[in-house]
Amino acid sequence: MNYLKDIEQYGQDVTDFEVSSFETIDMLHLRSRLNSESHNMTLKERILLMEYYLQLLKNVDRMVFNI
Q: Which domain of life is it from (predicted)?
């Protein structure tokens, strides 16, 4: 299965702070699903996902404020 589309969507979501709390929660559900499926991903997909995880960590204060 190709996870690239979902990973890219997640990547857009971790930097978008102009969304509702519900959309932010949806993004976190997507993150959980991707994390649980990471063992099925290619190395490229896992690396990209980790880059977005790091981006989320950098933006955690803004993300919590948005929720």
A: Bacteria
